[in-house]
């Protein structure tokens, strides 16, 4: 009999499917007082900008944005809104560079630093994955609100080779 595939759990607030996040991400970014709740569950990231839930599992447990030691850029309305956690780029700093110079060097800068082995996405980015998709979207549309920025970059695409 073939193995039955289980659907990915959905956010308890939005009902949207999440993307799996390595446990090292939660261990690195959750406040010490709540880390004991991680347990052995598989955790998922809620990418909905309007939802306070950041991580959830398939058993009804979740962690909200105030339980993290970093701001979750896509869930914030006011700056600074982080978009690259390894190299401290925000939606606002990218927009400022474009206003001042007419373009952005941030994607090339991040790519160069990744090649040098400086990337720590699993432990610094709340998504637990590469930020380049988010950064490219921010560069492409500096006037976008956080809801307009797509977040579909596949995890592991930038740091795996570093």
Structure description:
- The protein has 162 residues and is of the alpha+beta class.
- It has a single domain (19-148), classed as Single Sheet (N-terminal domain of TfIIb), CATH 2.20.25.270.
- Helix content is 25%, strand content 11%.
- The chain has five helices and six strands; from the N terminus they run E-H-E-E-E-E-E-H-H-H-H.
- The strands form two sheets. Strands 1-2-3-4 form a four-stranded antiparallel β-sheet. A two-stranded antiparallel sheet has the order 5-6.
- Strand 2 (43-45) and strand 3 (53-56) form a beta hairpin.
- Helix 3 packs antiparallel against helix 5.
- It is globular and about 50 Å long.
- The termini are far apart.
Largest sheet: 4 strands, antiparallel
Question: In what range is the share of β-strand residues?
Answer: 5-15%
Domain count: the total is 1
CATH topology: N-terminal domain of TfIIb
What is the SS-derived class?
alpha+beta
CATH class division: Mainly Beta
Calculate the terminal CA-CA distance, rounded to whole Å.
40 Å
Per DSSP E runs of 2 or more residues, the count of β-strands stands at 6
Radius of gyration: 16 Å
Assembly state of the chains shown: single chain
How many helices does DSSP assign?
5
Helix coverage percent? 25-40%
CATH architecture: Single Sheet
Helix-strand pattern:
EHEEEEEHHHH
What coarse outline follows from CA principal-axis ratios? globular
What secondary-structure arrangement, pairings included, does this model have?
Layout lengths: L18 E3 L1 H7 L13 E3 L7 E4 L5 E3 L17 E3 L4 E2 H11 L4 H10 L5 H4 L7 H9 L22
């Amino acid at each position: 009999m073939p193995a039955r595939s289980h659907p990915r759990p959905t956010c308890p607030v939005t009902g949207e499917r999440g993307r799996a996040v390595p446990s090292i991400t939660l261990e690195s970014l959750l406040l010490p007082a709540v880390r004991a709740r991680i347990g052995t569950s598989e955790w998922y990231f809620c990418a909905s900008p309007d939802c306070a839930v950041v991580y959830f599992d398939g058993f009804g447990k979740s962690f909200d944005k105030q339980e993290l030691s970093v701001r979750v850029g896509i869930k914030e309305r006011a700056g600074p809104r982080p978009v690259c956690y390894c190299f401290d780029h925000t939606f606002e700093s990218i927009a400022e560079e474009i206003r001042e110079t007419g373009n952005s060097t941030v994607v090339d800068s991040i790519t160069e630093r990744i090649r040098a082995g400086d990337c720590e996405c699993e432990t610094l980015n709340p998504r637990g994955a590469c930020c380049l998709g988010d950064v490219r979207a921010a560069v492409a549309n500096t006037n976008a609100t956080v809801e307009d920025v797509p977040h579909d970059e596949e995890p592991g695409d930038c740091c795996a080779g570093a």
